[in-house]
Amino acid sequence: MRFAWIDLREVPRPQLQAVVDAAIHTRMAGVLAADAELLATLPPTVTRVLVPGGPAPTAAKKPGAKGDKEQQETRPASDAKPSAATGSSADAGIDVLLRTFTAQDQLDALAADNRATGATPVAGFIDVRDDRTLRLSCAGAMVLPYTVIHFADPTKIPLEIVLAAAESAEGKLVTVVGDLEEAAIVFDVLERGSDGILFTPRSADDVFALARLLEATTPQLELCTLTVESIRHVGLGDRVCVDTCSHFEEDEGILVGSYSSGFVLCCSETHPLPYMPTRPFRVNAGALHSYTLGPDNRTNYLSEVGSGSALLAVGADGRTRRVVVGRAKLESRPLLEIRTHAEDGRLVSLTVQDDWHVRVLGPGGKVLNVTELQTGDELLGYLATDKRHVGLPIGEFCKEV
User: Fold this and answer.
1) Percent of the chain residues topping a pLDDT of 90
2) Domain-by-domain residue ranges, the chain?
3) How far is CA 126 from CA 2, 175, 189, 317, in A?
4) Contact (CB, 8 A) for 342 and 361
5) HSE-up of residue 282 (Cα within 13 Å, Cβ side)
6) Which residue in 289, 248, 287 sits closest to 267, CA to CA?
7) Averaged pLDDT, 17-43
8) I need a surface site. Which of 40, 101, 166, 313 has the fewest CB within 10 A?
9) Predicted local confidence at residue 97, as pLDDT
C-alpha cells in the first residue's frame, strides 16, 4: 500500500502546528523532522523519522509553485558520517533514524546498524545525480528498511531502474517529490510505483490534498447476473467506440447502459475476429446516449467521452482499474437494443451496434456476440443504487424509461 511521509523541516513556522495536526488527522504514515523533541510529542500512530545533525535534501520546488517566490535548491542532509544507531525506538519517541550515504562503506555501516539488536531502525538517504549514485541507490534499496531517494533527473527513468532492481527487496522505497502532481506520477511509475513519497507541504491544505491522492483507488465492484428478455433492431443511430491508452485483459471491458441504474459489461476487442485484427485497447461500447461508469462513482454519457477522459476497466470478477481514453470514435451504424432484467426484476437496457463483432461478457467472462443473443441468455452487469444528476450520485426521485 502506498504511503507518504510529511517533511516538517521546510514548513513555514506559522503553518507548522496546523500541518502537524493535519498529518495526524489524515493518518499520514510518517512525519520527518530534525527536532527530536517535536517528534516526541507525536502519537505512535505515525512513524516518527529523525534526521540527526541537520536537514536532509528536499526536492526543489518547481518555479511558480504556490507560496514560493523562487525555486528552492536541494540541500545536503547531514555532513555527519553514519554511525551506530543509538537508543531504541522507545527512547525519545523516535521510530526511524534517517542518515545520508554517499559511498558503499557508508551503506555497509547503515546495514550493520540495522543488524544491531534493539537498535532504532536506520533508513538511508541518497541524492541520485549520476550513474554511481544510481547504482548505490539500487544497492541501498536491497538492504535497508527504508531508502529515501531524491532524483536530480526530472525524468522518471532513474526511478524505473531502482524499482526494477529492488523488485524483490523487503524494504520500502521512498521518493522525494516537489509537489502533488509529481507525487501522482511517482506512484504510477512501472505500474507499481514508489512505495512511498516524502513531501514538504506549505500548509494543512496540502496535507489534505495529499490524503485525497493516497485514497484515489478504484473499488471492487459486485457484479450481478442479468437475464436477456428481448433483443430488437431499432434502426440507424450513432455509436461510440472507445479507444483507451491501455491493453485490456481478455475478461475486461467497460460498463455501459441506457439507464444510470444498471449497466452491462461490454467486452473489449481482445478476442480474435474474422476479417479484422484484434484491437486490445478498444471497446465498441454503445449508442452515444449511453451512460458509462468512471472513477469516483461518476457516470458520463458516451457522447462526453474523449481524449484524456478517465474510465473504469472492469473485469469479470469485479476488479477495476483506471484507464485513460486516447480517442472516442462516433459513427452511424444500425443499432440493436438488448433488454435484460436483474434477479430483483430491475430493467437494464443496452443499445449497441448491430454487428456480430460487438461483444458483451457473461458469467465467468464468457464472450457473447450480441447478434447471437437469445432470450434467457445471461450477461454480467452492475446495478447502481444511486440516482444521478450530471453524472453525480444524488438522493432524489428519478425514473428512467
Assistant:
1) 62
2) 3-214, 224-394
3) 20, 10, 19, 42
4) no
5) 17
6) 248
7) 93
8) 40
9) 94
CA 166 to chain centre: 20
H or E segment and range at residue 20: helix 16-25
C-alpha 236 chain-centroid distance: 40
pLDDT at 87: 42
Nearest to 335 by CA among 385, 371, 282: 371
With CA atoms as reference, report the closest residue to 337 among 235, 198, 214, 197.
235
| SS3 track for 286-349 | EECCCEEEEHHHEEEEHHHCCCCCEEEEEECCCCEEEEEEEEEEEEEEEEEEEEEECCCCCEEE
Q: Which helix (H) or strand (E) holds 131?
A: helix 131-143
Task: Note whether 315 and 246 are within 8 A (CB).
Answer: no
- Answer whether residue 177 shows pLDDT above 60: yes
Structural contact between residues 152 and 129, judged by C-beta atoms closer than 8 angstroms: yes
Question: How far is 254 from 50, CA to CA, in rounded Å?
Answer: 47
CA distances 113 to 41, 81, 289, 385, Å, are 26, 13, 63, 55
The pLDDT value given to residue 57: 46
Domain 3-214: give its CATH architecture: Alpha-Beta Barrel (3.20)
pLDDT higher than 60, residue 334: yes
Task: Give the other-Cβ count within 10 Å of 44's Cβ.
Answer: 10
Q: What is the pLDDT of residues 68-93, one digit of tens each?
A: 433 333 333 333 333 334 444 444 58
The domain 224-394 having CATH identifier 1.20.950: the answer here is no
Task: Give the angle 148-150-156 at the CA atoms, nearest 5°.
Answer: 110
CB 231 within 8 A of CB 354: no
Query: What predicted TM-score, i.e. pTM, was given to this entire model?
Result: 0.59
CA distance 225 to 125: 52
Look at residue 241 and give its three-state secondary structure.
Answer: strand
| DSSP at 276 | B
- pLDDT score of 401: 58
CA separation, residue 386 to residues 218, 257, 298, 398 (Å): 18, 14, 10, 10
The CA-to-CA distance between both ends of the chain, in Å, stands at: 43
pLDDT, position 191: 56
The predicted structure's pLDDT at residue 181: 87
